[in-house]
Amino acid sequence: MQYRFPVHAELCILFLCGFRGEFVSRTGRSMSVKPPPIHERVVLERKDLQSLFDALHQRKYDLIGPVVHDGAIVYDEFSKVDELPAGRADEQEAATYRLKKTDEPWLFRYTVGPHSWKKFLHPPQLRLWQMHGTGRNLEIDAPVEKPRSLAFIGVRSCDLHAIAVLDKVCIGGPYVDPGYAARRASCFIVAVNCVKAGGTCFCASMNTGPKSEHGFDIALTEIVESHRHYFVADIGTPKGAEVMASVRTSPATPKDIAAADQLVADAAGKMGRALDTRGIKELLYQNIEHPRWDNVAGRCLACANCTMVCPTCFCNTIEDTTNVSGNQAERWRRWDSCFTLEFSYVYGGSVRSTTRSRYRQWLTHKLASWHDQFGSSGCVGCGRCITWCPVGIDITEEARAIRAGSVGHVHKG
Ligand code: SF4
Ligand code: SF4
Known about the structure:
Elements lengths: L6 H11 L4 E3 L5 E3 L8 E5 L3 H10 L3 E8 L2 E6 L10 E6 L2 E6 L16 H4 L3 E10 L2 E5 L8 E6 L1 H15 L6 H8 L1 E6 L10 H4 L11 E8 L2 E8 L2 H7 L5 E2 L2 H16 L10 H6 L6 H6 L7 H5 L6 E7 L5 E8 L9 E2 L2 E2 L4 H20 L9 H4 L7 H10 L9
Parallel strand pairs: 4-10, 10-11, 11-12
Antiparallel strand pairs: 1-2, 3-13, 3-14, 4-5, 6-7, 8-9, 8-16, 12-13, 15-16, 17-18
The site of one iron/sulfur cluster (SF4) has 12 residues, from helix 11.
């Protein structure tokens, strides 16, 4: 059914009538009137992608998404489709990242880069409070953060799982990080399903991808055919449905859905790596004295790159500063890493004084003790730590080496 209304009536109809159907606006665009049901799949043509971004802008969201910077795809503010890395393809291997230009129109046919969404939800540095004054005349200013509303565009399935892991750590227990809670409540998530697996990805073996199953407001699968470029969009939440209702879409046909599912299944079949998770917790606990820890310590630089790029590593330190005249002080929270010597410092020295003990701590926390602490793996198989390790240490290879030469020692604490 199609209806024509004068332009001043269009908004009233949108918000008041609530009928389900389609009408044609003065611009000739057919518009959805009622939000599509959650889990419905619709088609968004490439030429209409900007209208999705505009709809988010109208709802006061600032867009954060993939852009090219310093030869890598990173996450930063953008507002126009033209700013996305069209035609860019990445090549990733251990200690290798290369971005290529292609003639293809794909906007999202690459995998994750060095940034993750952690930097927006759990910022690398944060001033907790500041104090001014002298003697007894002290004023403490600890402002309650009012976060910007951010729309994350292009969140991959592994990173949806990483956000869920951070949620458990930062707001899922008895000690809630109020800043994280506010930032998390203010974000809108547009996921993008991976149609190309990266050389260091292993999400399929971690059951964290490449298809986005939950944790998104909208999830897009990009499809490029010889004469058509479009997205199959899954609606994940009422918020996602409300936004999509103001964007021109059409119902996805069985052919559209099959094409989208096939692309994602192909990506799952071409993962660069895999991690065997069977009994991994017990395996690592039983091999705490495995000679492989000495082997990896001989290569590891303890540079902490792996923890900085990891979307789930959340450790931080606290720094207090004062000005020269002593009338102003600040307390900052900064990302830290279990690879630094100072991180395990307790009175008299560091508990983990060797690189061997620090690498072992990191890997066993990610794959074993995280389960005991938070009920899931701390690794989502994004592969960042493999790509961005300057000496190419590979978590999947290290876990495999331990499994291959398991000595079965029982961990006694
Ligand atoms: S594993 Fe690699 S990235 Fe991590 S601390 Fe060691 S050298 Fe640096
Ligand atoms: S440990 Fe490595 S592969 Fe796993 S989530 Fe962190 S960066 Fe990604």
